[in-house]
Structures are given as C-alpha cells and as structure tokens.
Amino acid sequence: MRRGGVIAETRDLEIGYMRKKTISVMKDLSLRARRGELVALIGRNGTGKSTLLRTLVGLQPALAGEVMLDGRTLHETGSSQLPRIVSFVSTEPVAVRNIRVRDVVALGRFPYTNWIGTRTESDNIAVIAALEATGIAALGDRSIDSISDGEKQRTLIARSLAQDTGLLVMDEPTAFLDLPSRYGIVSLLRRLTREKGKCVIYSTHDLDTAINEADRIWLMTGDGVTEGAPEDLMLTGSLARAFESPLLSFSVNDGTFSFIRGRQNTIALEGRGKAAKLTTRALARCGYTTDPDAPRIVKIYERGHMTEWVVSDGSNEKRYGSLYDLVTDLPGNDQ
Length: 335
Prior knowledge:
This protein is α/β, with parallel strands linked by helices. Helices cover 30% and strands 29% of the residues. A six-stranded mixed beta sheet has the order 7-8-9-4-10-11, with helices on both faces. Strands 1, 2, 3, 5 and 6 form a five-stranded antiparallel beta sheet that branches.
C-alpha cells in the first residue's frame, strides 16, 4: 500500500457535549489518517466512537483542540466547502421512501448543483460512476424500499462517492448486516482506498473484519485512542487489554477472541490437516486440551470425502461419523 498525504488530523482534541453543562468524553486526541488508508475505529460501547466521528465532520463542535481536514481547520474550511472535502454516513436508517436508488445516490451531488438542485451532465456521470463502483448499477431504477439492507448500505456509500470527497467517514456501516454482507461492505471500502485514493474512516464492532482488512486502527478506550496497524496493537497487547475479560482471551497468533474455559480435560489427538484443526477447535469448545501423553486418544481417519473419528482408551474403541457425535459423547463436554 502506498500512503498519500494526511487528509484528517486532530490536535489535542477534546470531544463531548455542551448541554446544561459541558460533558467531556475524551481529551488530548492527536490522530492522523492519510489518503489511501482504511481506518477502523473500534472500542467498547460508550467510549465515544460516534462522538469522535461526528466531531471530525463538523456535526458536533469540539470542546477544545483542532480538527484539520486537508490541511485546514474546520473553521477555516467553512460550511460551504466542507461537503466537498468530507462525506458522512451515519447509522441511521435510510430516511427517504418511494425514491429510486439512483436518485438517492444523486443526493450526494448537492455541493455542486445550483440552488434548485439542477444536475449537469458531469453530475450524472458522477452518479453512474458511483453506482458502478459500488456494484449496484443494476439497481439504479429500483425503489430504495425494495432492496436489501446490504444494498441500502451500498447505496449510501455510492451517495458518498458521488459527493466526490477525499475523505469518507462512516459510523457503523456494517451494523445489522449478515456476515457475507459485512465482509462485502468492508471489502468495497478497502477497494475504494486502493482504486480511488480515498481515505475511509469507519467505526465498527466487528473486530474480525477490522483486524483483517484495516490499514490502521484507532482503538478507543477509557484512557484515549491508540493508533497503529492491527498487528502493532496485537504485539503491544493493546487489543487484548481493551477487550479481554474474565470470560475472554485474545490470541495474538490469529487475532481472535475465545472463551476462557474452566476445568480442562486432556485427550491425545492423532491426525493432520483441516480435520485435525477443526477437531482441536471442537474439543477446546467442549473443555478439552490436546496432550500427546493423555491416556485417551482420538484418531482421525479420512477416506475420500468421508471422515471417521475413533476414540480409544487402550482397551475400548468407539467410532463416530461426525464431530457433533464425538464431542457430545465425551464426558465433561459441558464446559
């Protein structure tokens, strides 16, 4: 990945709310994001992720410090120029009804149209390009009410693309989507940073996609925001400290969380390849660790597309045709 120049920067930023009294959520935030980067903002509920994103795009005033977009502060940029620099997608559901997908995308052209919203040929070209880039060109004439949640998310991203900004900020763009749709959206965002040179900053609770796809992570905790590549935060233990609990353990090797089991039984395992890995996983879920010196052993036999598991304690054998049958028959499988 070749990084571009800094497009979003905060300097000693303090975020929060001004109501009857000032409520500070977090202070002393100094962060950077560059063109060509996919930045994932992660953290536990209530840490202030949405507040930070809304402050970045000028929807919420900063309590102190500065937000710099494309080298200028928000105050220097002004409200008329800001929509040409940054676009924002919130977690709110699509508020429009009975409107075609292409017309929703065309709403992104508002910084460039005249006061009555007349679109030029260049506006129409931008809308078509946004529909094609997000893979929804075939949906252009469909009503926004008739498409799936994932397609609606792509429509909102297309609207941001049509707005033609260097920075796209998105609050939970994968919320409420199924697993393939979540990966599809994040893959699309990553492709936009590569092919279009955009910077995308998005918040998410989906740690798997963030760890696997983001170039940079902003990890928000009660102590502030730590930034770096996912692997940097794994090496320093920052990710583990942010999310681990008495019930969860974080694996630095594969970047995944797992439940901490109580009492562990032991069993030997003889086999290799995918079947052995999945058997180890199933056994661990049911409270077993593998130990080559354990008195009982699970042997895996693979014949073509068929797999059989044989459990032996030296005098008796039991055969199983599935991992479900194996683990449900083992004693102590309620860990």
